[in-house]
Amino acid sequence: MSNKIITYGTFDMFHIGHLNLLKKLSQMAGHVTVAVSTDEFNDQKGKKTLIPYEQRAEIVSSVRYVDKVIPEYSWDQKISDVQEYSIDKFAIGEDWRGKFDFLSPFCEVIYLERTKDISTTELKKSLKNFLSIPQEDLIRAFEVIELLRRDLE
């Protein structure tokens, strides 16, 4: 497999869905390039990230399925990235179906099934809900857990 594939994403709060995507891409091509959205681009999209770009890019680049990480700084860079890096395939989650068909003259466009029941958006909602629990309730819950643990010993 000597062909090259590219994907784009924010990769905030790296999770199993991200890993599954990158693993799938490595099975589809001999070289995987990942464009990680910069903080400035996420601001333009109205997206708030928890982890700064440099750390997100480093996390993604450390995954064994990834050969190259580049910054994603605009919606308009995709065609030039495909040409500059000699990309054969563009792949992204099926929730984007149809949005990147304009790349078809330049490379194969593939929309992949997402990992069921996992998304950064849902993780952020869960975290927000967790953080909205009053501190006293959390302390009481941990005290009950500790008492139960002691009873089991």
TrEMBL record:
Keywords tagged on the record: Nucleotidyltransferase, Transferase
Matching Pfam families: CTP_transf_like
GO MF term set: nucleotidyltransferase activity
Entry keyword annotation includes Hydrolase: no
KW Nucleotidyltransferase (keyword) present: yes
SUPFAM superfamilies associated with the record: Nucleotidylyl transferase (SSF52374)
Cytidyltransferase-like domain mapped to chain residues: 6-125
Listed name of the protein: Glycerol-3-phosphate cytidylyltransferase
Species of the source: Kushneria konosiri
Lineage: Bacteria, Pseudomonadati, Pseudomonadota, Gammaproteobacteria, Oceanospirillales
